[in-house]
Design brief:
By secondary structure, the protein is an alpha+beta fold. The protein has one domain (about 1-160): Aminopeptidase (3-Layer(aba) Sandwich). About 35% of the residues lie in helices and about 40% in strands. The chain is built from 5 helices and 8 strands; from the N terminus they run βαααββββαβαββ. Strands 1, 2, 3, 4, 5, 6, 7 and 8 form an 8-stranded mixed beta sheet that branches. Strand 5 (about 80-90), helix 4 and strand 6 (about 115-120) form a beta-alpha-beta unit. Helix 1 packs across helix 3 (about 45-55). The structure holds coenzyme A. Coenzyme A binds next to helix 1, strand 5, helix 4 and helix 5.
Length: about 160
Amino acid sequence: MMKIAHATPQDVIEIQRLLRETWNDTYGGYFFQATLDEVYKNWQSIEFLTRQIEDFEIYFPIVKETESMIGVATARLSEDVIVLFRLYVYPQHQRKGIGELLINNVIRHFPKAKKIQLHVDLKNEKGQAFYKKQGFKEMKRESEKVANEVIDQILMVKEL
Ligand SMILES: CC(C)(COP(=O)(O)OP(=O)(O)OC[C@H]1O[C@@H](n2cnc3c(N)ncnc32)[C@H](O)[C@@H]1OP(=O)(O)O)[C@@H](O)C(=O)NCCC(=O)NCCS
């Protein structure tokens, strides 16, 4: 049976494992190793993830199926816009509707929001296909430097 609930600090090791495995599956083939390491060190560290789980302004749902974690999302409200920081589903559980379940759960969590937005990597075609199917539109392209690599991203927005 599938359950969806806010993450607790006890979930952090499993969340980290899910993020690392899914991140590596998605980007391992084309980001520099230094970029991957920088992400692991900063945004997938136990300390960073625990701070996010304990931050009352951050919504951090996880999906579990028979006690195993299969997907996570992280979002916060900025004025009337939901900013989605991450949406990850284990590779072996993708394309079964878990991503859609999580994104709809995030939208329901912030009923007053007027829009939802996220950045998706320009090379992440799977992510872009998913968000387009969910009704997101490309707004603009932006670049960010991580370690020594320039990462091109697309800002995608959906009106609610
Ligand atoms: C993007 C992601 C969250 C989608 O989750 P999901 O549970 O697979 O998505 P759903 O099953 O709800 O939706 C399926 C739709 O997503 C897109 N999609 C998912 N996997 C795809 C693939 N391998 N190739 C192309 N499109 C794909 C398609 O639009 C698909 O619809 P279709 O099957 O009718 O073609 C998931 O692929 C993932 O975790 N990717 C790695 C992390 C990531 O890129 N996150 C988003 C950027 S922050």
